[in-house]
Give the backbone structure.
Amino acid sequence: MNEARQFSYLVIGDPVAHSRSPQMQNAAFEAAGLGRPYGKLRVDPACMGEFAEYARKNLKGVNLTVPHKQVILPFVDELSPQAAACQSVNTLKIVEGKIYGYSTDGAGISGAVQENFGLALKGLNVLMLGAGGAATAIAFELGWQQSASVVIANRSVEKAQALVDKVKVHAPETLMSAIPLADESALAGAIAKADLLLQVTSLGLHDEDPAPMDLELLKLNPGLRVFDAIYRPTPLLKRAAQLGLPAADGREMLIYQGAASFEIWTNIKPSIDAMRRGYAEDGE
Ligand code: NDP
């Protein structure tokens, strides 16, 4: 923990070297006149108990990335309703030695869809590809924000169905269903009806990754907006842009989840423009 001694806020992950949270959060702290108190630390998941004790005594706030969002759960003293429902924590706030856990990934997708497409989630018909950690937080947010319908397409359809069953309990008014990602006719039907396609599988992170679906299906709906949670121009985003569909990568989601964390820690609304500039800086 020694390399992190000078910081009162940290992002932890394993790996974490790639994280842009320090430059993004420090830009917000600086814009608020609070210095640059935020660093990064690689934490082995097996050492989470030790880290939690360090955090209790030395830190004010933490962001958690893969694979820590569930690993931290036993060490949190109190979970927000969102974090409890998703069983996922991406933000810790430490007050007088007590650890409070939050999930701001939902706030991230709401902010990103508003910023990128000028849309609220309420009333939308959504097709989401993926049912992993990020997709779970997004599915809960879609339910809480009363999206009209949500179809979850996943490689393992049982995982998508389990997610549907969990979210339905909290969001009885949203129509929810699960389909296999490989079922092209079900996918085609969902695309034709959707206002918004959310790509939340990990496909697209690497150059050699195949697209998560047949990209020609995008032609079925000229009104579709396409969001990819990955922070780079994936084949899905490129094809959507070629077809003239509004398309956006995951950057604004990262910024808005970080902004929600900042507000939890400081009770101050951060400058989104400063965070965007910080995100675009070279890493530190
Ligand atoms: P998880 O590992 O929890 O989930 C991975 C998902 O991808 C699962 O639905 C999995 O399907 C699917 N998947 C993986 N490999 C394949 C494959 N070969 N074919 C089809 N589906 C596949 O990851 P996360 O949910 O944490 O992250 C998902 C993506 O979202 C990542 O790319 C991450 O970078 C991005 N992300 C972006 C954020 C942002 O702020 N923009 C925030 C968090 C994540 P199955 O269930 O069948 O295994």
The chain is about 40% helix and 20% strand. The chain has a mean pLDDT of 96. Residues 116 and 252 are 8 Å apart (CA to CA). The pocket of NDP is lined by residues 66, 105, 108, 130-135, 154-156, 159, 181, 200-203, 205, 212, 229-230, 250, 253-254, 257 (CB under 6 Å).
